[in-house]
Amino acid sequence: MRIETERLIVTEFTPDMAQAVHENSLDADNRRFVPDEVFETVEEAREAIAFLATQYGGRNGPLAYPVLIRAGGENIGYVQLVPIGGGEWEIGYHIAQRYTGNGYATEAVRAFVPVAAKAVGTGEVHGICLKENAASKRVLLKCGFEPVFEGIGEYQGEEREVFRSVRRLP
Fold it and tell me: What is the set of domains in the chain, with CATH numbers?
């Protein structure tokens, strides 16, 4: 997969991205909101990339792709589609803290969702985040996700205040 936007490229992970994946995963927001996606060492990041690469071309997921800045090719985060059971899929994304506030997450998610949904054969994608994660909630709403639930729900194996949304595609 390769998606190009005005400022970004969404492509496949390669082993040489391990250092950037490791560094991008260490910021405070990632630790707070998706601690299972923190890679404490470059080797952990390399192992994750190796696994993710085995998923490309399949329909089982997770289907994760790095987000690169077009000018220079710097890896600034990722977007992914993850199966959540019952044939349903959830969007996931993270932009490293030093790049937030520039609209990169919105740009990447907006471009990625239709392409990824078509690839896995689904007409809708779910967006789930912690209610307190105002930035993620804004990204979902800007990308056409409609709120469907806000309250106590399961998040990363715990009961937490969550925001759930869905984007239905034509």
Answer: 3-123 (3.40.630.30)
